[in-house]
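lol ok so funny story. i was supposed to be doing the assay writeup but got distracted and ended up predicting the structure for this chain instead. priorities right. anyway since i did it might as well share w the group, maybe its usefull for someone
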Amino acid sequence: MTETRTVSVLGTGIMGAAMARNLVKAGHTVRVWNRTAAKAEPLAEDGAQVAATLAEAVRDADVVVTMLYDGATVREVMREAAPALPSGAAWVQSTTVGVESVGELADLAREHGLVFYDAPVLGTRQPAEAGQLTVLAAGPEEGRDAVTPVFDAVGARTVWTGEDGAAGSATRLKLVANSWVLAVTAATGEVLALARGLDVDPQRFFDLIADGPLDMGYLRAKAAAVLDGRLTPPSFAVATAEKDARLIVGAGERHGVRLDVAAAAAERLARAAAQGHADEDMAAAYFASFDEKPGD
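and the output, tada:
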């Protein structure tokens, strides 16, 4: 049987809530906290303990998982939470942050005697809800027994990228993977927009590439979200995707790499957000190809 843990999940948005539910299903004692408390309260019905304060959420925790918006938010939350954590507790940092932020967060962990794991996840709403995420993890081999049951509860597999969480090797791989996700999503939106502009039935395009090297499941999934109007609830929201795109562009710039596609994707996502699509699936970047939402 899997050894159970007391796990605190800080941040109960799309990903955090799904991870918390799967941790409960795996038999762990789960405490959850969210800055907007109403987002955490439904998890009580799933068996999680909803904490009113960060200190209450992390008290006596074996593992704390941060799944928040960005690096600045993680720093702010953990500066308040860390003093209440027992020394030696494991911190699984799963928020997608910049490479520089990883080192800063690892320093914060060290100050409070926490064992730091750089552990972003690959996947969106559906695999998160199914416990089928891919966990990208870096951290000390000694101590992995504490976090492995957590990773097993939320993911289908764990890819270890190194033993030094502060070096951010897992985050680096996550940013590379997300650059591909964003590029495909942006291209999907432009294909559909151009087809509309040229009065081409999108299905003719899909028939043209069917079963060939240009065909791919992700293209069809994101296209279907647009064509069928299934943009809510989002698998990965426009606003969050824009944040990640800018992290990717910034990482490239700091390492001498110009990423024109990622930069363009960030601007498309920003335009879509300004049009009112910030909380829709990132496939809604499609609308950035038009001055107004088609049909308005």
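Residues 196 and 202 are 8 Å apart (CA to CA). Residues 169-197 form the longest helix (29 residues).
back to the writeup now i swear
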